[in-house]
Protein: Nucleotide-sugar transporter
Amino acid sequence: MHYSRVSIPPSQSYSAPTAVLLNELLKGSISLAIAFTRIDRSTSYTSDTPQPGLTTGRFWNPSKVLLRIRRLGREVFSPDCWKLSIPAILYVIQNNLQYVAATNLEAATFQVSYQMKILTTAAFSVLLLRKQLSASQWLALFFLAIGVGIVQIQTGAGDTSKAASSLLFAGTSMNALKGFLAVVAACFTSGLAGVYFEMVLKNSQADLWIRNVQLSAFSLLPALVPIIMSRPADSGFISSLFENFGAWAWATVAIQVFGGLVTAMVIKYSDNILKGFATSLSIVISFLASVALFDFQITFTFILGSVVVLIATWLYNTPGRSSNSVRLGFA
Ligand code: C5P
Structure:
């Protein structure tokens, strides 16, 4: 994302709000397709048992397809669908803030400061989901944020950031204060949106993919706002949307779409706090993969950061925590 924003002069950069809108359109379409194939298995507010007409006969039988579409419509427009409007608006704000932060901060600085979302997520989980965290678990989360921060500093300083910044366009100006304020705001919206989505998902029976469709649908309007506000008066609306929208922009959108769908599954099958551990461990593992694949050097900073991450993971899961706390179950 950082590279796609800063490797070209600002006058030739693509529109970040267009990228956010495309992200939602693609995620919504993929989720709708998955929901369509699963609708006969989903038991939600409309019915607790699979519909008889849906479970028999061929999948593409026209009357069955029609039944599926009607049921899908009922599920997506269920009376409680409006609950998704809150995380939808928050995620759109967060996704736009990420672009502001990644444009104005070095890639490593952005990633390090973005780890503060581990703590905001834990705070919102305690406030909204009534999760109980012991003192040692809070300490573990604090270590986790610090540890992954150390790994990121060294990853950035050692390789990616240096390589990327040597390619930076000289005229690209970064505003560190603007970038830092954006990252702080993104940490709060990330924590609140994730925990709110988890609350809606776990307090009802609706299928995850139906919830994702609702989330994307409610995101469309707020995602359109910055696009309409910055609409150029002199050129065509659609052509201005896709101005300079090249391969790097599409790659950034693709990563965001894939990441979003995986995030939804992680929130469903575990929770937002464990998502923080999963991403932190994945950062350590992906650096090790880079050592094997791209001749990256293992440095003392990497070992230090990784050890802190592993100690944090162990500490979070050691007995002696309160009984209501979550378990780190990989099974
Ligand atoms: O940084 P963080 O982990 O909070 O980012 C979560 C990302 O996952 C956001 O970009 C959000 O749009 C996406 N997401 C999603 N569908 C969900 C939950 C989150 O696309 N159900």
In short: The chain is about 70% helix and 0% strand. The two ends are 33 Å apart (CA to CA). The CA atoms of residues 270 and 331 lie 11 Å apart.
